[in-house]
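Here is the promised in-class demo. Please do not try to memorize the tokens; focus on the logic of going from shape to residues.
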């Protein structure tokens, strides 16, 4: 019998309930809802900005228990889809922190009572004579979402946040449009204090950074207004989750319509869409993949057809997901997949036929995606000068000193991505390893990694970099 060791990261002692059905078992505690995994086209976004669909009598509200109930770390394949147990019962397989499979009730053997016990539930006791009894629910791992829990809110919440991000991108100003008035101040500069011609760039973590104008205070209200131009990173978690949802479902920053009611019930439609100037600014900054293919109608009132989600799109999306996550909580595969369920990257239907409830999920296909740290992201300052930034350093371990830091190399040291930001990949009850060392999916040649594993590692590297930048950013630069 394998020995399980309690870890600090383990979930509370709570029983998870799975209801076995011929097609699968539940994702949550809701009684009687079976899970039926299915597939999507390779490389395609699943479409839509909503959180799913209901059919056969099922609704979003009724499916909430299956989608949003108690969620635990389970065994998944390289695309992030649950690997169900084989045999009489097709159950999701919960994992301990060590990747070990937690024993389920139906595995008890002769003392298992199918009429009294849930076959897919984690064992709380074993057969007589197998003392000491072990309550394996103590080793369940709850999936942590932190700030990303807002993804469970109505889609209009992300619509509005996405709209704010699009408005900021549209407001970015290139060098050619600055200095229109004497007294303007341009702080949109590079690390060598040279004025940057771009309106948009990426920070070392990969987040969108914009050169935005702020009107200076005027003593004389009749005086000509002057402006200060400065870099501003889109760091709001909600806005980044909105960008993530749209890029992974549409393949670009597509149009989103926000409908509200004004006075006397008047319907007001607000359209969030990239301006032509913003599209040009993105293209100049080698971020043209974020803009939908044109030409576009003016005014645009309908989204463009969904595009193929490319590797460049997914690399950007991994950063947006990381920017929406807790800075101090590592990104996990189960977090990514469940988040995709909530925001519509994975689509689902919830049906009820003769009181049998079935949740069917179509998973986004990560098959074509690979990730190589240092090439696809996390490049040294020699390769990407934008990754050299002025930060607070502690050369003597006691006092802070401002220095230019190559975030991914050089001296002084930047962020330490390994081993701390390595995501463990579980396969068949064991960590995926090369010899005695856990394999890290940060090289496209890594054997055994799936697209979802590479995507999760890309997001985790971005998350750790955001944490580093947040900790060492000079206050005068941050505010």
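The designed amino acids, position by position:
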């Amino acid at each position: 019998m394998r020995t399980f060791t309690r870890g600090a990261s383990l979930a509370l002692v709570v029983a998870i309930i799975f209801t076995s059905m011929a097609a699968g078992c539940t994702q949550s505690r809701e009684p009687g809802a079976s899970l039926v995994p299915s597939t999507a086209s390779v490389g395609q976004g699943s479409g839509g900005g909503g959180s799913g669909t209901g059919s056969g009598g099922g609704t979003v509200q009724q499916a909430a228990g299956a989608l949003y109930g108690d969620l635990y770390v389970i065994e998944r394949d390289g695309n992030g889809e649950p690997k169900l147990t084989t045999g009489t019962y097709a159950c999701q397989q919960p994992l301990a922190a060590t990747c070990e499979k937690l024993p389920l009730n139906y595995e008890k053997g002769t003392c298992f009572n199918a009429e009294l016990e849930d076959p897919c539930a984690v064992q709380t006791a074993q057969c007589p004579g197998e003392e000491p009894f072990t309550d394996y629910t103590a080793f369940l791992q709850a999936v942590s979402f932190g700030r990303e829990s807002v993804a469970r809110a109505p889609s209009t919440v992300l619509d509005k946040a996405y709209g704010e991000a699009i408005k900021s991108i549209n407001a970015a100003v290139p060098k050619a449009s600055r200095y229109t008035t004497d007294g303007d101040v341009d702080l949109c500069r590079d690390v060598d204090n040279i004025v940057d011609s771009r309106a948009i760039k990426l920070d070392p973590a990969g987040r969108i950074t914009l050169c935005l104008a702020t009107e200076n205070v005027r003593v004389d209200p009749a005086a000509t207004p002057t402006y200060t131009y400065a870099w501003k990173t889109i760091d709001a978690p909600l806005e980044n989750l909105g960008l993530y949802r749209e890029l992974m479902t549409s393949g670009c920053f597509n149009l989103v319509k926000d409908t509200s009611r004004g006075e006397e019930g008047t319907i007001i439609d607000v359209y969030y869409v990239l301006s032509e100037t913003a599209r040009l600014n993105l293209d100049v900054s080698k971020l043209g993949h974020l803009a939908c293919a044109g030409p576009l109608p003016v005014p645009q009132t309908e989204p463009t057809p969904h595009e193929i989600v490319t590797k460049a799109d997914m690399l950007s999306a991994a950063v947006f997901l990381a920017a929406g996550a807790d800075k101090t909580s590592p990104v996990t595969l189960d977090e990514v997949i469940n988040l995709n369920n909530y925001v519509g990257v994975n689509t689902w239907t919830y049906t009820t036929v003769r009181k049998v409830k079935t949740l069917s999920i179509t998973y986004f296909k990560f098959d074509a995606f690979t990730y190589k740290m240092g090439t696809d992201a996390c490049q040294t300052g020699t390769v990407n000068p934008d990754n050299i930034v002025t930060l607070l350093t502690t050369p003597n371990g006691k006092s802070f000193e401002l220095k230019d830091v190559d975030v991914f190399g050089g001296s002084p040291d930047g962020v330490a991505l390994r081993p701390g930001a390595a995501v463990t990949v579980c396969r068949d009850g064991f960590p995926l390893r090369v010899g005695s060392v856990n394999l890290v999916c940060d090289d496209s040649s890594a054997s055994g990694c799936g697209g979802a594993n590479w995507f999760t590692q890309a997001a985790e590297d971005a998350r750790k970099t955001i944490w580093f930048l947040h900790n060492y950013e000079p206050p005068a630069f941050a505010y």
